[in-house]
Amino acid sequence: MAEVDFDKLVAIAHEAGDLAMRDWQAGEKAKKTWEKSPGQVVSDADIAVDHFLRERLEDLVPSAGWLSEETHIDHSGAGDDLTWVVDPIDGTKDFVAGRPGWCVSVALVQNGAPVFGILNAPAMEELWVAKAGSHTEVNGKPLSASVQTAYDGCRIPAENLPAEINLTAVPKPNSIALRMAMVADDRADMVASTRWGHEWDIAAAHVIAEQAGARVTDALGQKLAYNGTHGKALGVLCCSAGIYETAVARIAKYAANADGQP
User: Fold this and answer.
1) Pairing, β 33-37 against β 40-43
2) What are phi and psi of 144, to 5 degrees?
3) Which of 15, 57, 184, 206 has the least C-beta neighbours within 10 A?
4) Region of poorest pLDDT, from 1-15, 90-104, 123-137
5) How does strand 65-68 pair with strand 82-90?
6) Residue 127 has pLDDT above 90, yes or no
7) Whole-model pTM above 0.90?
8) Cα 215–Cα 220–Cα 221 angle in degrees, nearest 5
9) Burial class (CB in 10 A: 0-12, 13-18, 19+), 261
10) Is 153 left (phi over 0), alpha (psi -120 to 50) or beta?
11) Which residue has better confidence, 182 or 40?
12) CA dist., res. 125 & res. 133, Å (int)
């Protein structure tokens, strides 16, 4: 595994969260926002945190490449052994609406797999960290993922669910990374998306959840590989090991269309 000063990495993530909080207030809409594409909201804070993280993380590991939501056209890291995969603010819709379900997401990817992951959710006062092969925790508490074994009735972060799906809705942050972290902390049993997504949304949460004992793959049950040239993945499935095989089978019909709700 790459040699990284983890304390410095955590400190950088703390600073990034503090920077974002300057433009966030509970219940208040952010003022400096625009749409970078239809339906894709971005704020001044996204850009400021992105610039801050790139400068500080590249200083921390000068040999690592870079891939982030706000500078994803720069594929300078594609093909490198080490690459930072970053979402400066995951859950921007919650951020700009003054809701707390957002975080700063930072992952270091080595040879296609995330080896360090940090989610800093300052509005929720939660800091999630993980080292592959070592440990995973939130606010210093070791994480242990959901051990749910029955698919029917399992908890899934959702605003509402059709009754015929027979799942249990739990509170849903806009950040998919935080939803995956909920599985890592046994607050949910499954997160599943069959839509095309991006590596920077899930890389840090992947190592956090996996180290806690959850299963994490794409929506088809295939291994997720990071630091590709397009930055995309076919959805994600993050769930307890006990329901994984059933979950893959149940969502297959939705994943085939790359659009839908499990």
Assistant:
1) antiparallel
2) -135, 115
3) 15
4) 1-15
5) parallel
6) yes
7) yes
8) 30
9) middle
10) left
11) 182
12) 26
pLDDT at 228: 65
In the chain, how many H helices and how many E strands?
A: 6, 14
Backbone angles phi, psi at 205, to 5 degrees: -65, -30
What mean pLDDT is reported for the chain?
88
Q: What is the pLDDT of residue 227?
A: 72
Phi and psi, residue 197, nearest 5°: -130, -165
Q: What Cα–Cα distance (Å) separates residue 229 from each residue in 12, 83, 115, 173, 198?
A: 26, 12, 19, 28, 11
60 CB neighbour count, 10 Å cutoff: 16
Give the largest CA-CA distance in the chain. Answer: 51
What is the C-alpha to C-alpha distance for residues 95 and 25, in angstroms, rounded to an integer? 9
Residue tagged 């975080």 (tokens): 103
Q: Are 109 and 7 in contact (CB under 8 A)?
A: no
Q: How far is CA 5 from CA 38, 69, 140, 240, 243, in A?
A: 39, 24, 17, 31, 36
Q: Are 108 and 77 in contact (CB under 8 A)?
A: no
Residue 251: pLDDT band with limits 50, 70, 90: confident
Three-state DSSP class for residue 113:
strand
